[in-house]
Specification:
Distance between the termini: 83 Å
Number of helices: 4
Number of strands: 3
Strand order of the largest sheet: 1-2-3
């Protein structure tokens, strides 16, 4: 009976060594996806505000000012710096058809907990905001 206890003494430690990295990787993945979801929400909000400002200030000048409006809103609401986590900064496409102005904002999210780990790929965030005028 005593020999069995000695033989199984280190089994829990060995099991922990095999399981701990997998659990840590799962937690890091969930945190990164949560940060990317938060970044997508802020990008969507900024695109809607940019579309509203374009309609309010004149649709004719929207192509030139949409990126300025988007970056201004991101700086207003973003303490974590979404503009800094976008690979090359956010990009904006403006479409004007059938009295509806559409702004599509793209951002390659590279931040998060897993930045630099295991070749973490860029997460592409894309959102579209439409505003009738």
């Amino acid at each position: 009976m005593r020999d069995r206890r000695k033989a199984s003494r280190g089994a829990a430690a060995i099991e922990f060594v095999f399981i701990a990295p997998v659990l840590m990787l799962m937690v890091a993945c969930f945190l990164t996806l949560g940060l990317a979801g938060s970044a997508k929400f802020r990008l969507s909000d900024a695109a809607m505000v940019a579309a509203r400002r374009c309609v309010t200030n004149g649709v004719a000048t929207c192509n030139a000012n949409a990126l300025i409006y988007l970056n201004t809103r991101l700086k207003e609401v973003d303490n974590a710096g979404l503009a800094n986590t976008c690979a090359g900064g956010p990009t904006v496409t403006v479409t004007n058809a059938n009295s509806v102005l559409s702004i599509t904002a793209r951002c390659g999210f590279v931040g998060g907990v897993m930045q630099g780990m295991i070749g973490m790929p860029r997460i592409d965030l894309v959102t579209t905001a439409a505003m009738p005028f």
